[in-house]
Amino acid sequence: MIKLIALDVDGVIVDSAHEVFVVCQKALEERGEILDDSYEEKFMRGRNFLRTAKDFYGIIKLKDKDFDSMSQEYFNDYVNDHEEESRKMSEDFFAMRKKMQDEDYDKWFSLNRVYPGIADAIKNLSKKFSIVISSTKDFYSIYTFLERVRIDISRENIISKEISENKVDQVKIISERFAANFNEIFFIDDNPEQVKAVKKLGVNVALAGWGYTNERQKQEVREEGITILEKPGEIEKEIKRVNEE
């Protein structure tokens, strides 16, 4: 029986695609590089490959490639082949995000939006299940944003990048911290690679179809027999189905 729900943040609770573009843009400006506003639309199409902030390097440097036909494996290999540059991009990204928050938190906050229906879904689900965050986003951004939009998640229920940037490791930590067996956890993420990796632990998983995943990736997930949820209101129904199996 499911007793704990682990939710990703970006692409599941928060649409931060515009925010991360602006932060990347400003981080590059400090290096003397230009990321033109006209690239934002294509940047959004590459957003579905994101696992950690190091992947922003790939989204920016592969801008002449077709993201819609690109595989996650190709993207991962490119980022891994540029480990030092991608790590530096990640460091610059988080430094710029914190700088923007410190200078004008309200302005930074306005770059994000909560997905319709997810706040109500979390509120209803929290009456029956423990809700835990599993995200490679920084703790400060997660906690302060959720607090601002009145989604009640306690600090100890947030597993962020400071703890691990590997979702499989995060879920292992969640299992131990909350005394939940893998088959008692329901994990929701918008990245197919993360969902498939966590599933191998024996965790119940679903893909958030309202996030950044493209249609080709959704088809790959369907072929794996993984459920795709098209809206937050479907979460409870899917958990009920899993519990009845």
In short:
With 245 residues, this protein is of the alpha/beta class. The protein has helices at residues 17-30, 40-46, 56-61, 72-81, 83-103, 105-109, 118-125, 139-148, 167-177, 192-199, 215-223, 235-244; strands spanning 4-7, 14-15, 113-114, 130-134, 158-159, 185-189, 204-208, 227-229.
What's the layout of helices and strands?
Elements: E1 4-7, E2 14-15, H1 17-30, H2 40-46, H3 56-61, H4 72-81, H5 83-103, H6 105-109, E3 113-114, H7 118-125, E4 130-134, H8 139-148, E5 158-159, H9 167-177, E6 185-189, H10 192-199, E7 204-208, H11 215-223, E8 227-229, H12 235-244
Parallel strand pairs: 1-4, 1-6, 4-5, 6-7, 7-8
Antiparallel strand pairs: 2-3
What can you tell me about this protein's structure?
α1 (17-30) packs across α5. The protein has 245 residues and is of the alpha/beta class. The longest helix has 21 residues, at 83-103. A six-stranded parallel beta sheet has the order 5-4-1-6-7-8, with helices on both faces. The protein has a two-stranded antiparallel sheet with strand order 2-3. The chain is 49% helix and 11% strand. It has two domains: 4-15 and 113-244, Rossmann fold (3-Layer(aba) Sandwich), CATH 3.40.50.1000; 17-109. It contains twelve helices and eight strands.
